[in-house]
Structures are given as structure tokens and as C-alpha cells.
Amino acid sequence: MKLVRKTIFWLHLGIGLLAGVLVLMMSVTGVLMAFERQIVEKADGFHITATGNPLGPEAHLDGLRTAKQPPSSLGFERDATRPVVYQFGKEKAVFSDPYTGKSLGNGNTAVRGFFKFILSWHRWLGREGASQATGKAIIGIGNLMFLFLLVTGVFLWFPKRWTRSGVKAITLLQKRLKGRARDWNWHNVFGFWAAIPLLVIVISGTVISQPWATTLVFHLAGETPPVQGERKKPAPFTLPESLAGLDAAFATVKSSNPDWQSIQLQLPFAKTATFIVADSHRGRPDLRRTITVDLATSGIVKSEGFDDLGPGRQTRTWIRWLHTGEAGGLPGQTIAGLAATASAVLVWTGFALSFRRFFKKRRAAA
Predict the structure, then answer these.
(1) What number of other Cβ atoms are within 10 A of residue 364's Cβ?
(2) Quick one: CA dihedral 359, 361, 364, 366, positive or negative?
(3) Looking at the predicted structure, is the pLDDT value of residue 366 above 60?
(4) Could you tell me which of 168, 198, 174, 197 has the C-alpha nearest to residue 186?
(5) What tens digit of pLDDT does each residue of 265-294 get?
(6) Closest to 344 (Cα-Cα) out of 138, 207, 206, 198
(7) Other residues' Cβ atoms within 10 Å of the Cβ of residue 108
């Protein structure tokens, strides 16, 4: 057992030194993005005053007839102080007053650009274009190394003797310690309290970054994994001459979902229109439905919710929101942010302990 523990220790130390900088980068960027949505909404600074009844999708889209390219979706919020969102793919968003249709601009582009820059490092190591695949592969390898460090770290954390003082030393911060003793204490304590949320974050990150992991999730759920290929860009389209029926369809969706918090109209549309309805914040996929409405009759022709998905798709969808903590709302985001902070401390203290092990001894011997 002593040999096994010693072997795992040196593997833990070696891989930690090899992947430390990459793990630190993922941790810091993860901390910065923990409350991205709330920060962006605050930075946008929209102050909308309710003046009568809000406009429907027909009026909002009619004002875009002179636009070179219509949006890919049109988003409405139940909150009367929130603007209507014209989403142009993932790259651009334009906002308007829900009561007048007046454009409110693109929000705080500086803050949005900052988070876009941070996300590019978190996902692709700052690479763009064709080299994103290389950056994603490196991040994926680093994520697997981090998973190995967490598993071996949990094993090494277990004390040789379960005494009160021994357990206290690895579960509670000791303020009076300095130097190596302090780093050892911090490394154990932060690792202990952050182990479970970090395992959730890293395992979900592995599924997100590794196609084989996604395939494994579907197989474990007893479902055939979908064929993975390149996403096709939507073909350009122009708004139809008549938008009649959209407002009535929108009213049907609202009346059939009395607890709705946000509704997103998908474009393009023809004889039917597709709406994505959310009854809660975006981290709850189980409270979302996709509803298709006939524009001629205002009747619902199709309604699909989370329960209609297979077990593999359900699991994969949850994994996306577990990774950011948004599945648990603001408390979940807070836990994810604290866990990412703890992982940065683990890297720092791990480097400090290694430095003292390899360099301090040499200086003492000299």
C-alpha cells in the first residue's frame, strides 16, 4: 500500500507540474465567467418604462424590412423592464424597446467583447478560425489531466490515521501556519471542500470537449448517439410580405404557457412559426418547450418538451448547465465560481510545494 501511495503521489506531482499552467488558465477564465449573464445585463444598463401594452412580433419585424439580413431569432421577456432581443446568430445582438420598437443599440459592446475574449481562451486557448480545433484538443487534454489530478488528489487526501488533529489539519484552514506548512494546509483544505463541485465541472467539461465522452453518455443512457458533423450555416432569407398571424400565434403561446418567463421566436418561418418557451432561467432545460403554431389558424400543431427527449439527450443537455453551475441558478453559479477559485489556489499551492521540494532542498544542501 505504501508503494501504491508513493507511486500515485509522484504521478500526481508530475502531471500537476505538466498541466498546471493550463489548469490555472481554465480556472481563472472560469472564475471570470461565473456571473457573466448578470454582469452583462448590469453593464447594458437598460432602463425601460412600461407605456401601455408591449408590441407583438409583427410590429418588431416590420421595422426590419430595410435591414440587409433579418435576425435568427426574436426574444421577449416577461419582465417589463427587459428589452426585446434581436439575435443575429451567436455573434451579434440588437435590443429594442418592447413598447415603442425603438432601437436601443447593441448593449455594452466592451463588456461583451471582454467575455467573448475570455470564452475563446477557456474553450479554444485563444485560437481563431481553423486553429480552434487544435486549441480545443489541447484544452480537452488538459481537462483530462485535471480529472486525473482530482481523482488522485482525493486518494492522497485520506489521512493515514483518523485522529481529530489530523482531520482538522486537512479540512480547516490554520491561520498561524507559514511557508510549506501553510501551502500544504491550503492545498488539502481547498481540495477537500471543492472536490465534489470540481469533479462535476471537470467531468462535464470532458463531455463537452471530447466527442467520445458525449458518445459514451448516450451509450450509458441506452440511446444511440447522434451523428456528429459540421453545423451548416442557415441560408439567407428575407421577411415575407405578410407577417399576419404572428401576433395571434404569439398570444396562443403565452396563453398556453401561463408561467412563461421568456419566449423566443425562431426565424425563418413560413406557414408555421416555432417558439421556444422557458418557464425559468436559462439553466433549467426541463422547463423549456418548443411550440410550433399554424399561422393561419393560430392552433398549436406541435409541442415538444424536455420529457419528449431520450435519456441520452436529456443527460447531455443537463451536463451543459451543470458545467457552468447555472442549473442551480444563482447559488449554483456561486458554487461553480468558488470551486474554480479553489482550483486556482490548488495550482498555486501545488507549484509552491513543488518548488520547495526540488529547490529549497538543493539550496539547503549547498
Answers:
(1) 7
(2) negative
(3) no
(4) 174
(5) 999 898 999 999 999 988 999 999 999 999
(6) 198
(7) 17
CA dist 259 and 289 (Å) reads 12
Calpha distance 346→184 (Å, rounded): 10
In tens, the pLDDT along 183-236 reads 999 999 999 999 999 999 999 999 998 899 999 999 999 999 987 666 666 666
| pLDDT > 90 in the chain, percent | 79
Please state the separation of Cα 86 from the chain's center in Å: 21
275-291 in b/e form (b: 16+ CB < 10 A) is bbbbbebebbbebbbeb
Beta strands in the chain (DSSP E): 73-77, 84-88, 92-96, 103-105, 262-266, 272-278, 288-294, 300-305
- The DSSP letter of residue 161 is S
Q: Give residue limits of the domains in the chain.
A: 2-36+113-223+326-365, 53-107+234-309
pTM for this predicted structure: 0.90
CA atoms in the 13 A half-sphere facing the CB of 58: 12
In order of 33, 107, 120, 200, 283, the CA distances from 139 in angstroms are 17, 30, 11, 17, 24
